[in-house]
Amino acid sequence: MLDSDSCVNRLTVALWALALAIVAVLIRPQAAAAQDGQSAETELVERYAPVIALRPQTEPCDTSGEQFAPAPADLVLDNPHMLLRQIGVENPVVLRGPTASDIFGMGGGFYIDFPGDAFGPGCLYERDYQRYNQGRNAVVYAHIATQSDRPDKLAVQYWFFNYYNDYNNLHEGDWEGIQLLFEVGTVEEALAVEPASIGYSQHFGGEVAEWGGKKLELVGSHPVVYPAIGSHASYFAPALYLGRSGSQGFGCDNTQNASRRLNPDVVLLPDEVTDPNDPLAWLSFEGLWGEKRFGPFSGATGPITKPRWTAPVDWHDTLRSSSVAVPGGSETTTPVVKQFCAVVGWGSSQYLTAQQHPLRVTGILAAIAIVLWYLSGLTAWSPLPAMPVVRRRRLGQIITSAAAFYWRHRGVMLRMVAMYVPAIVAASLLVAGIGRLLAGSAPEGADPNLGPIGAILIGMAGAAVQGLGLLTINAAVIDVADRIEHGRPVSAKAGFKAAFAAWRPLVGAALRGALIVLGLAVTIVGTPWAIRQYVRYQLSASAIITEDLESGTAALARSSALVSGRSRWFHTATVVLMVQGLVALVGVVAGLAFLLATNGLPLGLYSALTALASAFVLPFTAMAQLLLYGNVRAETEATRDGQR
Questions:
Q1: What share of the chain is helix, strand, coil (3-state, %, to 5)?
Q2: Nearest Cα to 625, choosing from 581, 576, 584, 559?
């Protein structure tokens, strides 16, 4: 039997247990609801927080690596080096070192001016960023967004603030980001399903991918984002990307070799901030995060000014399904793409210079025009008959006579161009095939960068096939002109037949000449002699066809003898520079036109089309070199006759 004390003790324990159970039942719904309501949003944004993949710098101020990482926005707040300015006459300073409270609710008439000159950054912005951000982790800002007319969908946005945009449109401050879209309407439902798709912002547009698709790289549930070096546009993979529109951006974005990976802190943003003392009071600022400049060179506006803040579904629907990646990356970029990247960058630089120094740029352009006008007056431009070939002609007459001959015999010239097309196609297919073969040998998931060996192999293969085509069409045009002069039957087929018959001396002269020129050039000190010999060998093909030379060595010797003498060398060099420059110019202009006019063609086809456009100029260049040969030969014979 139990004594009375034991019964009392047991009864006391039982009553306490009952009381605690009643309290737990009564308070749990409220506590759980509050905790779940708060943690559900946090759990959602933490679950899908992005991994940021950047190309590391090899040393401080190395612009080939990424200088900036997503930073906290308050990096530029409560900082005495920052100036809050009002847009107007001379943009007066309103406040030095503005805080989040100071800029609370300010409209678009204000901007935060960073130290430095955005158009001449040097290393200042990187040094300031490192100094202000010292000891702080990378940060992304999350926002759970809904759209009033699409209650069945929910978006999770991640916003990245970068201190400086070192791209074609240089500017202070940069806001980029990504967005996940769920086919549900609440946070609780989103926690129970996976996202339907994900969008990455890129300049004024962006790109979308299905969740779980091959294009999207995940680390667990975290999407990997590849910001482009300098521009911070977000991409799905490491590559060299080509932008040819407003949504894509104009220029080349590089995300290759992004081996530095960051797991940033996540800060959840509310839909709006109503308290100026809130640490996130900066969110309501509608001005510029960076200096006010002209056009796209001004600092970026903050997240709440972007349409996707309140219309995430509409923004998602505008995204592209893909971006144009250059096969093989920057090391195997085709000439037309290299030209495009360089021209866009150069054009942006010149635009900046013109805006900053309009009188200086106008003066330079006027000086160039005057010099060209003066130089054009130093020669005669009225065309002379192309026959006989061996005849004295001035520089301008060689150009106009070659053009007149091309036009007069355009039928046979264009047929030769058509017969040259297979060489272009073969070169493009060969380059594309080798590129795919080398890229396919890379380990799965690795950056398909082909490296220097792959680049050399592709370059040699393309140059070999296209070089043989150039030799052939050049020799064929010379043979056609020779036939016309001597009254023999003329046809494109006969011209190519003669070129094939002379393949041994043509190829021999080309290979021997290339080895000599390259051998001199690689020594660096031999570069002047390499240039000298390159010019002296330009008439070898004309000598082979018109003089029936049977040896490449003899052709090089004959060409060198004809070009000997300072005046003949400079005359030859000028003509060669003009005609080869014309081919290059046509290639650049055509390539840019193709790139800008069409977005859906493979890059290999762009290269082929550009080469084809250049091919239409080749009969003219071949004829110009033949007339140059005739002029030099006429001078040589006149000199020799005068010495008798």
A1: 50, 15, 30
A2: 576
Q: Where are the alpha helices (DSSP H) in 441-565?
A: 451-485, 492-501, 503-521, 527-536, 540-547, 552-563
Locate 552 and state its tokens: 């490449």
109-148 tens-digit pLDDT: 999 999 999 888 899 999 999 999 998 999 999 999 999 9
How many Cα atoms sit within 13 Å of 28 on the Cβ side? 6
Nearest to 291 by CA among 121, 113, 169, 126: 113
Beta strand 139-147 pairing with 324-325: unpaired
Whole-prediction pTM value? Answer: 0.67
Tokens of 332: 């195997």
Q: Give tens-digit pLDDT for 532-559.
A: 999 999 889 888 888 888 898 999 999 9
Burial of 426 (0-12, 13-18, 19+ CB in 10 A): middle
Burial class (CB in 10 A: 0-12, 13-18, 19+), 363: exposed
Average pLDDT estimate for 264-283: 95
For 591-632, write each residue's pLDDT tens digit: 667 666 665 556 566 666 777 777 788 888 889 888 999 888
pLDDT in tens, 98-111: 999 999 999 999 99
Closest CA to 110 of 276, 356, 284: 284
Specify the DSSP class assigned to residue 320: B
- Whether the CA torsion 435, 438, 439, 440 is positive or negative: it is positive
Domain boundaries, the chain: 50-325, 337-501+565-643
CA proximity to 330, closest of 455, 427, 225: 455
